[in-house]
Amino acid sequence: MEINEKTVEAVATIELIGQLWEPDDIHALQQRVNSVLTGAIKGLVIDMERLTFISSVGLGTLVRVFRQCSDRKLVFCLYKPQGNVRETIEMSEIHRFIPVKETPDELAQAMIKSRP
Amino acid sequence: MSAILPNAGELMRGLVTPGCVVDAESHILAANDEFLDLAGLQDLDAADNPTIASILSLSEEFPLLVATCLGQGRSFKIRRMPVRAHADRRLMLDISGLPASFDGLSGPACLLLFADRTGQPLAGPGAVISYVNDNDVFAKKTDAADIMIPAQEGTPEDRLKKAYADMNEELEMARNIQEGLMPGKLPDAINLRSAALYIPAGKVGGDLYDMIITPSQKVAVLIFDVSGHGIPAALIGAMAKMLFTHYLDKSESPALVFTEVNKRICKFIKSEHYITAFLGIIDPLESTMVYSKAGHVPPLLWHAKTREVSQISARGFFIGHMALSGLAEYGDETIRLEPDDKLLFYTDGLTEGTNPANEMYGMDRLTHAMAQSADKGPEHLLEAMLDDQTAFRQGCPLRDDFTMLCVEMGSPESFLKQSGFSRNDHPTLLVVYTYKSIEEAAGIILREMDRNGFPDKDIKRSKVCIYEMLTNAIEHGNAGDETKKTLVAYKVTPEKAAISVIDEGKGFDHSHLPNPLTPENLLKDHGRGLFIIRRYMDQIHFNARGNRIMAVKFHREEGAEGKTGRISKTADNS
Lengths: 116, 574
Prior knowledge:
- The complex is a heterodimer.
- By secondary structure, chain A is an alpha/beta fold.
- Chain A has a single domain (about 1-110), classed as Transcription Regulator spoIIAA (2-Layer Sandwich).
- Helices cover about 40% and strands about 30% of the residues of chain A.
- Chain A contains four helices and six strands, in the order ββαββαβαβα.
- Chain A has helices spanning about 25-35, 55-70, 85-90, 105-110; strands at about 1-10, 10-20, 45, 50-55, 75-80, 100.
- The longest helix of chain A is centred in the middle third of the chain and has 16 residues, at about 55-70.
- Chain A is globular and about 30 Å long.
- Chain A starts with a strand and ends with a helix.
- In chain B, helix 6 packs across helix 7 (about 255-265), helix 8 (about 360-375) crosses helix 9 (about 380-395) and helix 11 (about 440-450) runs antiparallel to helix 12 (about 455-475).
- Mean pLDDT of chain B is about 75; it is low at about 55-110, about 115-150 and about 560-574.
């Protein structure tokens, strides 16, 4: 899995490309999130548009990141999960507490609310 | 002592080994008596402008050099210098960091001594080799100096001993390489147990064996023996091993493998060497062995039902003899095996072991020994047979190395029952040890579902479930121990896909798993794997122990209603 990261106007976006299930990738993602959370950010987005597969361990990581963001009072969103990834997220009802945004506008709206 | 430059002569005071001092042009500035003797000179004045090159031409023997010292002014210190050999076999002394000159010389100089490979000075004959520049001392690039052969010090007997020791060292290396071609540990095969013993007779023998699990989880047992011994046999053995492995990867027909190996290897073996071989491919679930023989001693089969030992008959000419390659025709034969039957593959060094009366151990004793110990497991059976042969030899050395490999068949019925399938289902088996191999195993099953027309959506859902089942088995069942086996048995038909995953763990209580959708569990970062499997698959079953899960997906047309629903509402924590 490839992990890309960028921060624009205090909103960090971590882009996941490929499959999220292997322990090494899970660890890498968690490390990246931990690193991002040490910065002065107001929100965190996991861009899932190019994520093709997710397992329950991957879902668990998203839940853990959600808790980390909640503890820091940061906005946390998932962006554009596709196909089976989206289906698995929905079936696990993670979307009940982690917002899933489908368009840049929706994402921008969510992040505007994060600003003081 | 003879010195053109007196200070240089001081360098060698007290030296008992041949030595000289050279300048940057390799002129000899001083030499001790031992060196002069070696060079056949009375003193340096007797030679016209003596250089190392001219001295070298006087000597027929050129030892590895090398110790050196360098002095500055009038106080000289002898010190040993690091030496290394160039790729072109020249020697180089690193004298960087030493004083740049001493009295009477404008450039660096050094004292060169004769030394052996370990740097210990030699008292014997040899020649100094030098080439000095600002930083390094090189071997003089003359014809003689280019050939850095060791000094032939000592008596002819000493030299013979040394040559013998060198040869032994090389044979030892060859043996290590050869043993590296045999499996250190036999692979963990499905539904059978196995063990092997290799007993070397000398440094390098011609025996090799291997056990390979084929992609369809059959077990290929290969044993072969190259005629002769020593490095030629080892080289041919290595080459044959590579060829056997290569063709086994392409075919499960032993006869075809032998035919192809024979074709190829005949082109390479230019000597009288040849190979005898036996290759059996065991189907541990069908309880059969397809085999072919190439001039090899036939394996023995102990029948558990009758408790009798028989030979597995086969015909086939040995491999690798160019002139006789026309005789090399091979055919596949098949035998039926029963639970607890034991196969003994071996090489003829076992039966050709002799006692002090020069009697051979022979087939009868081997057969008897196997029958006597056949109730033991493969490992103990081989140990008992080795003990029997060793006792028979009464201390006589082995004439030839030998190999024994024993396979004990399991019961397909009980094994398949454990996997959740019956024998009539003819499931396919896969073994997974690591996270890395999950993708490959899942890919095989998913491609099978695709071939059977399953909708893309169901294939993707099944993918999640297979990953979940295998990840659980490795992480929880086998406690992350990637040496433990996770067995996958699956059967895909146009109607349904059934996938069974069995780990080596103690099992777990699947009846009391928390629901990840309840409020108290929703924010937990674990506990969703089985939930996903239940939702995506149509049926799941556990065995009583809880170390096997079987999941079934029925074939539905694309668009048929599944169990999962669409998102009706998303959360918003902003």
